[in-house]
Structure formats: C-alpha cells, structure tokens
Design goal:
By secondary structure, the protein is an alpha+beta fold. The chain has helices at residues 3-10, 48-51, 115-125, 132-143, 146-151, 153-158, 178-197, 258-265, 288-313; strands at residues 22-28, 31-36, 63-67, 77-80, 83-84, 94-98, 100-101, 110-111, 169-171, 208-211, 225-226, 232-236, 239-242, 252-253, 256-257, 269-270, 277-278, 314-317. The chain is built from nine helices and 18 strands. The strands form seven sheets. A four-stranded antiparallel β-sheet has the order 10-13-12-11, with no helix packed on it. Strands 2-1-5 form a three-stranded mixed β-sheet. The chain starts with a helix and ends with a strand.
Length: 319
C-alpha cells in the first residue's frame, strides 16, 4: 500500500483491466518480465507512456537508459525497446532517452533529437547526409567508450552524460579522417544496439555440455552456480556447461557482467512475506534459460569486441 495507491482508493479511482496493459518490460539487464502497466498499480510511470505508449511503439522506438545522477555503482548504458524498470541494475535509478516520443494514445510520433542538435552535428563533420538515427547510435557508441567512462566518472555521478561533438575527439593515427571515424562510430553504435536489443535472437555460443548419467536429464533451473574460476556453470544436477570464455566478464553493467545478471535473475525464489514463488522456467520452452545463457555469452563477446574497436578508434577527448 503505497502513498499513491492509498490516494487512489480515497478518490475512488478504479482499476480497469484490459489486455493492452499487459506489457513486456526489461526488469534487469537481459532479463525480461511481464508488467501490468497502469498508473494505479505502478507507483510512478514518469514519461514512459509517451516513450512506449503501446506495443506498436516497441517495434520502432529505441530508448537509451543510463545511470541516473548520484549512481553508486559503475556507470551503465543499455538500449531497449521495452519499458525499463527504474532500478535497472537493482540499486540505482535510471534515466532514459528515446529516439521518439508520442502522445499517450500512441499517435503523433515526434523525433526526440532536435533539428538544432542534428544541424550542429552535421556542421562539425560537414556531412548533411547524417540522420537523427545516426546521431542516436553515435551517442550509444560514445557511452560505451572506456576512456569516456573513466575520464568523466565523477561528472557522470553529478550530472547526466554530456556527449562530445566530433571535433572534440582525438583520433587514432590509423584513422586520420574525421568523417571516416564518425561513420565507423555510427556503425559500431548500430551494431551494439542490435546486439543488445535482439539478444534473444543471438547465436548460441558453443559450450561444452557435461550431462550426468546419475540423474534424469532436465532443463529446469532452480539456481545456477558459477565455479570459482568462472569457467564452469552448473545449470542443475543433470547439466553443466564448461569452457566459458573469460572475456565475457569484461562486459559489465554496474557491478555484474551480463552473464552474472542472468544467473542472478533466472532462479526460483520465494517471497518471505507473501509466500509467492517466482519461477522463471517456461513450460512452453523448457530450454529457454540455457539457450539464453549461450546467447548472452555471444552478445557479451560481441560487445567486448565492438568496445575494443571504439577504444582503438578514439584515443582521447579535447575539452
């Protein structure tokens, strides 16, 4: 019983249940859950009704979620096409910057990047062919630059991210032309976005599967467990995955790697107060969690590779 819920009761605001309010959301990194999206049962909806007003908007809109001001764990940026949880990393509040905004009925789609911002960006690279979508993905690439995150770590705690203009980038000697570098950054940003949005369609990384003959085989997960050296993942008593590549742990979202978020979230748990059981296993897709593990490993390796490309392309920032 929250403050707002009590006020709704006093004001006799009644809950209306319709199918369209059942929405897919991003609860934690690479962890989707269903959400009943309603102003009465959601304590604060903020601007999300104008970002993802309906399921159609999820097919065309992208939203970059970044750690909010005063975050307590390392800065995180993650793009999504679904309504995100405010505490996307379970600790800090996040703020989201979408490509489009809408009226709450889903009509009147508007660019969230202004004409002025695009014109300024185009002016600095003398290229009028660059689009707002290109600028959006340039921003996503910059937000993943390791030097950007370390150099401006204190600034990012006190204020929302400031994105450098192209002329403020120091290019590697292997890429002396600014337009070429910007085009490459845009391609990397698009590749990162595609990997992070479509993680459930990624290829499954080939791991060694050890199947026990002592118990009946099952895909069911109660609680997965990493070995101390993080090279082996026990799925259950019947299945263990080995030869996990060490590079996957270089892709971190806050205090955990992407794989560790999946391990943390995809387990059976019981709420002590209500006794309600949360079970992430899917009756209609028993292998989903194991498949997701392999897909997130692929996405993690892709991300590490793309971030390395950014690091090699941009060697510094000029204030």
């Amino acid at each position: 019983w929250s403050r707002d819920l009590k006020l709704d009761l006093n004001r006799e605001h009644y809950l209306v249940v319709v199918d369209s309010k059942f929405r897919k959301s991003i609860y934690r990194p690479f962890t989707s859950r269903y959400l009943f999206f309603d102003r009465i049962l959601n304590e604060e909806v903020y601007q999300q009704p104008s970002v993802f007003p309906n399921q159609l908007s999820e097919t065309e809109n992208h939203s970059i979620c970044v750690s909010g001001i005063g975050h307590r764990v390392p800065f995180t940026a993650l793009i999504t096409t679904f309504i995100p949880n405010l505490a996307l990393n379970s600790i800090d509040g996040f703020q989201c910057f979408p490509l489009y905004t809408y009226d709450e009925d889903g009509s009147n789609r508007r660019d969230n990047i202004t004409n002025w911002a695009l014109a300024e960006f185009q002016k600095h690279i003398s290229n009028s062919a660059v689009t707002k979508s290109d600028l959006f993905h340039y921003i996503y690439a910059i937000l993943h630059h390791p030097l950007y995150r370390t150099r401006y770590a204190e600034n990012l705690k006190r204020e929302l991210p400031h994105i450098p203009f192209p002329h403020q980038l120091t290019l590697a000697t292997t890429c002396p032309h600014l337009n070429e570098a910007i085009a490459h950054l845009i391609r990397i940003g698009k590749a990162l976005a595609h990997a992070h949005i479509h993680y459930e369609q990624a290829d499954q990384y080939m791991l060694t599967e050890i199947i026990s003959n002592d118990v009946p085989f099952t895909w069911r997960v109660e609680q997965m467990k990493l070995s101390k050296d993080k090279t082996t993942l026990t799925i259950n008593e019947s299945l263990t995955l080995t030869n996990l590549p060490s590079a996957i742990y270089d892709y971190r979202l806050g205090n955990r790697s992407a794989l560790e978020w999946v391990i943390d979230q995809y387990q059976v748990s019981t709420d002590k107060r209500s006794g309600l059981v949360t079970d992430p296993n899917r009756l209609d897709d028993e292998a989903y969690i194991v498949r997701l593990v392999k897909q997130v490993i692929t996405v993690s390796l892709q991300t590490v590779s793309l971030v390395n490309e950014i690091n090699q392309l941009i060697t510094g920032f000029v204030v």
